[in-house]
Specification:
With about 80 residues, the protein is an alpha+beta fold. It has one helix and three strands, in the order E-E-E-H. It has a three-stranded antiparallel sheet, covered by helices on one side. The N and C termini lie far apart (about 40 Å).
């Protein structure tokens, strides 16, 4: 009997974030982002409600920068050499 080759599921690719919506909460700050290539995503930053908005923005942007770098590296690796 011939076995079907297993396919690995890839993570959903996220493009460069274009727009970020930041909401305040009690112990977490939820955020949503809209990316260029695909729909976008969401997440939370664990910070107190009275935290400075600049600190929360810095934490969110750090996460999004890491996500964007990971996306760009995986994208360039899958395209191969020119």
């Amino acid at each position: 009997m011939v076995r079907r080759r297993e396919t690995k599921k890839e993570r959903a690719p996220f493009g460069v974030p274009r727009e970020v919506v930041l909401l305040s909460g009690r112990d977490v700050w939820p955020y949503t982002f809209i990316a260029d290539d695909s729909g976008g995503g969401c997440g939370k930053v664990a910070m107190p409600a009275d935290a400075a908005i600049e600190d929360v923005q810095a934490a969110v942007f750090t996460r999004l920068a890491d996500l964007t770098r990971a996306f760009m590296v995986s994208r360039s690796a899958s395209s191969g050499p020119p």
